[in-house]
Amino acid sequence: MATTFKDYYEILGVDRKASSDEIKSAFRKLARKYHPDVAKDKKAGEIKFKEINEAYEVLGDPENRKKYDQLGENWNAQGVPPSNGRSYSSSNAEGVHAQEFHFEGTGFSDFFEQFFGARQGFDGFSAGGRSRSAPKGMRHGQDVEGAILVTLEEAMQGSIRPISLQTVDPTTGEARIESFKVRIPKGALEGQIIRVPGKGEAGVGGGEAGHLFLRVRLASHPDFRALGADLYHDLPLAPWEAVLGTTVRLHGLDGDLDVKIPPTTANGQRLRLRGRGLPKPKSEERGDLYVVAEIQIPPQISPQEKELWEQLSRHSSFNPRG
Questions:
Q1: For a pLDDT cut of 70, what percent of the chain falls above it?
Q2: What CATH code is carried by the domain that includes residue 43?
Q3: Tens of pLDDT along 185-198?
Q4: CA neighbor of 210 nearest in space, from 141, 145, 146
């Protein structure tokens, strides 16, 4: 199974020399347009949103972007290298290669999985998964590990995700596709493991099948970022809003809410809204929402506005360097 190169710069519509801020801005603009909650075509919007998110997962991270840029040069020079895409292989007790697994429905492309979502040991697992002891002549199947992209809305409400798992026998080349549903629990957080029993490698001699372990990776959101169960939102404010105070309507993940901005709010100041974050795993409690003030300066001002600013400067006793 060959992997197709993805041009993440083209997906986000930015130049290869684009700054981090330009990449972030492009992602936010596209994510707001294609977010499944607002897209006119929900199905197409969901596909596009995942593609945009994948591109930002790479280009929005300095290390991933550096790796991608180096890969792009090698790719263009050497052509498309052979790849198993999102394949996860297992070995039997003698170390002999047994099966390959290909996922669909996790939210990541073959290209991303191979180069940026490479399977890592989960909680100390080996790359081949965990093995379990079994009676003589019987072998339990190896566990299979992968990643799954979960939106903040799914983490907020919980969801059911259809997954397809293709098993390839390297000896015969025979492929078997199995479709099943995975429950994304309410309160799923970054790095959390979702266990799907019996969806790993088949057992031998009557041994039990292995399990599928999916590590949650929270999708980037155009308006919120998550840290544990807490959410953060950067709120642009005009200078006079920060000085005089105001009330701003915020479109939250679970409904609108009015955020009161107190007078003399400083740039970068965090306003805490208790219990408006993500649900905490296996708990009725929720994290908090932190609104972070971002005071914006007008890029242009009219002659009348300039006169008012000059008048303020003459009458104000404030000295930022005093």
A1: 83
A2: 1.10.287.110
A3: 999 999 999 999 98
A4: 141
pTM for the model stands at: 0.79
Q: Which residue, among 65, 48, 88, 58, has the nearest Cα to 168 in the 3D structure?
A: 88
pLDDT score for 133: 57
Angle at 179 between CA 175 and CA 184, to 5 degrees: 135
In a domain, 317, yes or no: no
Long-range Cβ contacts of 210-213 (<8 Å, 24+ apart): 210/90, 210/129, 210/130, 210/140, 210/141, 210/142, 210/143, 210/144, 211/143, 211/144, 212/143, 212/144, 212/145, 212/146, 212/165, 213/122, 213/125, 213/129, 213/143, 213/144, 213/145, 213/146
Whether residues 44 and 96 share a domain: the answer is no
Give pLDDT, residue 134: 56
Quote the tokens at residue 65.
């972007």
Predicted local confidence at residue 30, as pLDDT:
94
CATH number of the domain that 233 lies in?
2.60.260.20
Regarding whether 192 and 69 lie in a shared domain, the answer is: no
List, as one string, the DSSP characters of 79-113.
-PPP--SSEEEEE-TT--EEEEEEEESSS--HHHH
User: Are residues 299 and 210 located together in one domain of the fold?
Assistant: no
Do the Cβ atoms of 289 and 233 come closer than 8 Å? Answer: yes
Phi then psi for 114, rounded to 5 degrees? -70, -40
How confident is the model at residue 307, as a pLDDT?
A: 96
Residue 150 sits in which domain range? 87-120+142-218
- Residue 292 lies inside a defined structural domain of this protein: yes
Q: Do residue 71 and residue 111 come from a single domain?
A: no
Distance CA 201, CA 182 (A): 17
Question: Which amino acid, 295?
Answer: I
**164 shares its domain with 264:** no
Q: Which 3 state secondary structure label does DSSP give 198?
A: coil
132 is a domain residue: no
Q: Cα separation of 8 and 71, whole Å?
A: 12
